[in-house]
Design a protein that fits this description.
Order of helices and strands: HHHHHEEEEE
Strand order of the largest sheet: 1-2-3-4-5
Bound molecules: zinc ion
Radius of gyration: 17 Å
Distance between the termini: 31 Å
Structural class: alpha+beta
Helix content: 25-40%
Number of strands: 5
Strand content: 15-25%
Length: 120
């Protein structure tokens, strides 16, 4: 799940927290190969390529809400932030995900604004 999880997280990040409705599993694999995670940019890159129509039913299935939900959950899972220091108490006790974090030592909650932590 590690690689897929990363991919989903990048996909969510690049598309304002949404998994594109038109995206198929095959698209995801291509996006990963191309290292293009923004859907519109990916679509543009695919405009000149013909999409194979019978590329296997499974791979052409769009990402249903169940998969999207799993992706969202895995991206929202809190994990220990190894190199982050709490801006409040300066301990390396932050746990968080790509959007927010909480400090175990002082219980202060933070939210990411770009790459930097802001007090909630
Ligand atoms: Zn703290």
């Amino acid at each position: 799940m590690g690689r897929m999880k990363e991919l989903y997280c990048q996909l969510l990040e690049a598309n304002d927290g949404q998994v594109p409705h038109e995206a198929t599993i095959a698209d995801l694999e291509k996006m990963n190969d191309l290292k293009i995670y923004e859907w519109r940019e990916y679509e543009r890159s695919q405009n000149n390529l013909k999409k194979p129509k019978n590329d296997g039913i499974e791979k052409n299935q769009t990402l249903d809400s169940h998969i999207e939900e799993l992706a969202r959950q895995s991206c929202e899972e809190f994990s220990y932030l190894e190199n982050a220091r709490c801006p409040n108490c300066f301990n390396t006790t932050l746990h968080g995900n790509i959007k927010e974090a909480v400090c175990e030592a002082c219980a202060q909650e933070f939210i990411y604004v770009g790459p930097s932590l802001r007090f909630k």
